[in-house]
Structures are given as C-alpha cells and as structure tokens.
Amino acid sequence: MQKQDIRNFCIIAHIDHGKSTLADRLLEATHTVSPQAMIDQVLDNMDLERERGITIKAHAITMYYEAPDGRRYHLNLIDTPGHVDFSYEVSRSLAACEGALLLVDASQGVEAQTLSNIYLAMENDLTLIPVINKIDLANAQTEAVKIQIQELLGVEEDEILSASAKQGLGIEEILESVVKRIPPPAGETGSPLRALIFDSVFDYYRGVIAYIRVVDGQVAKGDRIRFMAGQKEFEVDEVGTLHLHRLHRDHLQTGEVGYLIASVKNLKDARVGDTITHADRSAAKPLKGFQEPKSMVFSGLFPADADDLDELRNALDRLQLNDAALNIQPESSEALGFGFRVGFLGLLHMEIVQERLEREYGQNLITTIPNVQYRVTLREGGVRLIDKPTDLPASNKTDWIEEPYITAQIITPSEYIGNLMQLSQERRGIYKNTDYLDASRVNLHYEFPLSEIIFDFYDKLKTLSRGYASFDYEFLDFRRSDLVRLDIRINSDPVDALSMIVHRDKAYEWGRKLSLKLRELIPRQLFEVAIQATLGSKAIARETVKPLRKNVTAKCYGGDITRKRKLLEKQKEGKKRMKQLGKVQIPQDAFLAVLKIR
Predict the structure, then answer these.
(1) Of 481, 499, 523, which residue constitutes the final position of a domain?
(2) Which of 128-132, 304-308, 401-405 has the lowest mean pLDDT?
(3) d(C-alpha 332, C-alpha 336), whole Å
(4) pLDDT tens-digit series, residues 175-201
(5) 355 and 419 share one domain
C-alpha cells in the first residue's frame, strides 16, 4: 500500500449528532462488515455504550474503498465520543489523523461541543469536511445550518455535504470527499521509526496492546523498540491493522494506523501520547504528544463490606489498565473504613466507572460526595493541593484557598437567555459576553467555579431550556475564594464522608438543606439522633430524628400513678445510656443526598 493511497480521519460532533450511525454506514459502504454481521453501533462494543446510546471510548478501524476511477484507498477511521467528559479521547484521535468529518445535526445546528471539537481540530491542523446529518427529519433546517457552518468555518456552500446516516443518504459523496479533500499522510519511510501511541488496552495473556500511528519509518515483528518517555526496550511480538478483529501483518509503514504487541506487562511503560522508536536506530526527538487527561472530580469509593477491600483494589487496578484517565489513591475514613480516593474527568465518567465496577466486577460500593481539587497556600509557606475536605488545614494555618475555574459556553435559543443567565448567576458564574450565531440562537460565554457545575447544572440547564441548550467547558485557572469546610455531626460525632468545602455565602443554605435531607433518610432509633451542620465549632443548622418509643406502661392497668412514673423514668435513663453508647447506621442514600439538595 502506497502512502499516497492512505487516508486517516475521524468523526467529530456534539453528543447524539449521529457519529456512530455514520460509522456504521461507512463500514457497510466499504464492505468492511458483512450484512449478516452488521448491528447498530457496531464499533461501540461496551454494554454501557449500547444501553446509553453514547460512545465512551474512541474506536479505530481500517476500511478499503474503491473510488469511481478504480483507485483503491486504505481508510483508517476513528469514531470518537461526543460528551465533554470524554473529550480527552477526541484529542487522542485527532493526533493520529490528517482530517475529520465534522458532523452537525440538521435539526439542532451547531452546538457547544461542536465548537470545542472544531478548535481541537484546528489546533491539530486537520482538514475539516463539514457534513449536515439527519436531513431526513421532519424538523430539519438544512439551509439554516449551512449558513451557520459557512459563518463558522468560512467555507463555500458546495463544500458542505448533506447526509442521513440512518437512511444511508449521501454516504458515497462522503467517501469521495474523504479521498479527494483529506491529504495523504506526511512522513519519511526511510527515516528512523517514530510511532505515536494514541490508545491502549490490556490483554491478560499478551500484555499491553498499543494502538499506534506510524509517522516515520516502519515497524515489523522482531524489531527491538524503545518507548521514548520511559526509555524501556522491548521486542515486537506482533503488528497489524484494526478491523472488527485484529489482523496480523508483517509490518506497519509510514502513515498507517494499527496495533503493536511487545509483551509489555505494565500499562505505565506504554503511556498514551508516548513515541515508539527503534532501540538501535533511535529518532532524535519524540513526536509532539497531547495533553494528559487531568482529573476534575474526586470521590471516595469504599466497599460496603470491609472484607471486600482487596476485591475492590483488584477491580480498580484492572479497570485502570483500560482507562488511563483514572487517578487512584488509597484513603481511610472514620465512618467508612478503608477505601480509595479516585479522580475522574467528570460526573458522567464517575457514573460510568461506578456502574462498570458493579456490573463487570460485582462490587457493592459506597461512594462519597464528589469534590474538586483546591489549592491551599499555608501561612508557614508552601502550597498544598487537596481533593478531600478533611485534608483542609484549619483557618488559622492558611493564608488563602483557591478553587478551579472553568471557561464555559452555553448555546441556546434566544428565548431562554433570561432563565439561563439567572441559573448562571445562582452558580456564581461570571458573565463575559454573548455571540449571536443567527437570528434565533446565541452563545453565552461564562466563567464558573468548577464546584458549582459538577452536580446538577447540566440537568437544570436542559430543564430550563426544554432540552435545547448545550453546554461545554474547559479548565481555566485557580482563583482565590472565601471557602470553608462544612462538617456534618451525628450525635456530636463528625461524619468525615459527609464533609464538603463550600463558599461561605452558601454554607448556611447547604447545611440547612443537607440536615433536612439526612433527617428524612436516617431511620429512627431507640434514642434521639441529633444532626448538626457545623463550621468549625459553630453549629449553623440542626435537625432531630425523634426516637422510637416503647409503651412500657401497657401492662399497668390502673393502680398507683407513681408506678407508671418509675417505669417512664427508668426508660428515660436507659435511652440516655443508649445514646452515649449507640452507633447510628447511616444508609448509602445519605452519602448521595448532596446531589439532590439544590
């Protein structure tokens, strides 16, 4: 296969604009998948991806396309996720491509993640082919969306393709545009090997399977290779291309996308973004990688049964082999015992990981309140990064606390601007400016504290805009804020798993609402249960769970009243002792209550 006949491209779009469906049609049109083997979302091989109808992991596959002029092309397609939590998967895919199909829903138009993906593609100097999908829908606004794309990209109208992936319309035109408009890969076949690792998975029998894009040179079975980041050397056991299954090849050459197996037992030795070169003929410098995924949300994962700690540790280790974005550290809690502090890319990522642990590994989990990472400047000098409220030093030991801010864009029909601006103000948003995309849609630019949008901001946004608004964000910087630690005490005992760091202006509101929620969730005991929200030693909210009461005078029929009083006094004394010794059982729902109290 000549380099001039190779095309490497990906599909990028906002969530639910039809990426996986278009990938299905391309596989059908190139006869990569037989009609008997064809199923919906053929590249989405995780059960969760199929059930939720979203792509979580990027998927690569090789296709062969014969153009009308009889020339045969080697097409490497990478299907990417659309949700903001998995944008790091998109950045990996773009690093391995020369071009991208930019998919836009004909009924929804340009949305927030569409813009974000365009900027990512431009940073990587990719050739963009805009495609308007779902033109068969009754509410499709194809002409209006064309105008949006023309204004956004500065392209001519005839450069914008129209298609319906569901109906199979326009698929041949898309394939022709891929081979005509996307350039063949650059690189020198005779140069020292440089191959970029854009993804990897772990096989329990063969070790790490690295998905690579060969930029310069070639790699073959038996070659001695070096990973340039860690300088570790291995011998190549197998190389090949990625179809629905791995297809063994003698070698991979400049411009090709495929896989490499070299008996690498530790995933950290084959880091995503690293460059592979030959051990005996090393490249002078590595390829420009891409930004490492940065954890944005942190939560404690604890086994419901303390005896299952080792099982949870093994499950997390195995899950991390195929999800390099997870950040795992051991931690302990007075309330929950031993567990792990896990960093996620967002709440959806956290939800997916938790569900995979429960389904695939049979874990029974207790998850604590999600938190973001804060930067604390100490009075004695030095800076600490903390992602756990109990690690926050006392106020007399800190000079100031900084919290992460994000820059966000909200694309919405203009009639919902008022509602969304009010929501943004409630979440401490800083308004920057408004761009009008067309006569009826606007792009609101805001800066938010990350802690204000990780819980239910997206759900509120969709509710207030009747589902029409879209939201995208990226990390901006750390900024000083008046933050305090809010503790929850049950019968004067602090429950560290329910502690949180909040802005001082919202501490009273959070404390009152969480206390009320816990009063509903904690079952009644034989003694009174006092729930307090405190800032340091000061209680700012209190609720009480009334005790159950046994009728100890039921057998006293008449007689002296003093006898009944003695029984009641005896019961009262017994409840005091029980309150001193008793431990309150807090249900799992209580640890998730914070997600529902806004």
Answers:
(1) 481
(2) 304-308
(3) 7
(4) 999 889 999 888 888 888 888 887 777
(5) no
